[in-house]
Amino acid sequence: MNFRFAYPEILSALALVFAWFLFIRYRKPASITYSITQSLSKTAGYRNLNITMIPVLLRAACVTLLIIAAARPQLYSTEKDVRSYGVDIMLLIDTSGSMQALDFHLNNRPVTRLAAIKKVVSDFIKKRKTDRIGLVVFGKEAFTQCPLTMDKGLLLNLIKRMKIGMAGDSTAIGSAIALGGKRLKGIRAKAKIIILLTDGRNNAGEITPEQAAEAVHALGIKIYTIGVGGKGPVPFKVKTLFGTRTIYQRVDLDDAALKRIARIGGGKYFSASSTKELSKVYTMIDKEQKTETKVKEFFHFHELYHLFLIPALILLGIEVILRSTLLRTIP
Are 95 and 135 in contact (CB under 8 A)? Predict the structure, then answer.
């Protein structure tokens, strides 16, 4: 909840109240000329000047509260109705054993391919605020880690918890594409896309990547493919009897197959051999697949003027009573 005055310019009248109070406080008191005032003062009794100011204080407080009430203090909250002509996106991420290669860097430190991918993919998800995004993880098997959702917090948490080998050490690209297409089938959206990321060659599953791509594209789904990693041998950390050692192995990236999949799926193929290049790939995809959104903002107001008006009327009544009884003055 937020607070505001609907008519804040009215509050400038408080300066006039303050000036009026100073004028009353320091002006010469009203008096009358009478020949035997000394005897009258004994009859009236001594009255402290501060007591005579009580009605003035009550009047100033009353007018101050009335001015605040007239400015219409309000508590308000906002509500947004987001109408998104958006894009439904399924992210297909390879978590096979080859993703533990240490040829990517974050903050100038070598990290596994999966660690770099998790960082870049998380940044991509944060940009697509009004799109539904889902996640398929694949290795030897392919399974849905997260169905299409607008809950980016949930999705980012699942991305963070991905681990190498969680779906097996082989690479079932065809199965992943088929599962991603199944998740997008029959959904109405401005655009439906699959972003496939892998660093290997299809060597598991019962359906070929090309067959899966044809079936998915027939459903009106576009496929982007990303090949991760360089051409030469890459470093891996392995545990031996003598401790952890770094060895170099070649990873068999089938970029030709990825190009065919992208062509069949009506999308594009990208190659990324570093974290920087991978970020650029997702930035390009983000620009190509822009979402059209319409946002209506609603304000809900709760009026607070009565919290000032009622005390003002009470103070006014007290002042009138005091001026008519205990603090009555002549003239």
Answer: no
Tens digit of pLDDT for each residue in 203-229? 999 999 999 999 999 999 999 999 998
**Distance between CA atoms of residues 61 and 71, nearest Å:** 15
| Cβ pair 300, 79 in contact under 8 A | yes
Encoded tokens for 123: 């940044």
Write the DSSP assignment of 25-45 as a string of letters: HHSPPP----TTHHHHHHHH-
- Under 8 Å CB-to-CB from 174, ≥6 apart: which residues? 202, 205, 206, 207, 208, 209, 210, 211, 212
Of 266, 258, 147, nearest in space to 217 by CA: 266
pLDDT in tens, 220-255: 999 999 999 877 788 888 887 778 888 888 888 899
Judge whether 101 and 143 are in contact, CB under 8 Å. no
Cβ count within 10 A of residue 5? 15
Strand partners, 89: 133, 193
Dihedral over alpha carbons 11, 17, 18, 23 (to 10 degrees): 160
- Verdict on whether the full-model pTM lies above 0.70: no
- Nearest alpha carbon to residue 227 among 195, 249, 205: 195
Which stretches does DSSP call E strand in 230-291?
234-240, 243-249, 269-272
Domains of the chain: 2-77+305-324 (no CATH), 87-290 (3.40.50.410)
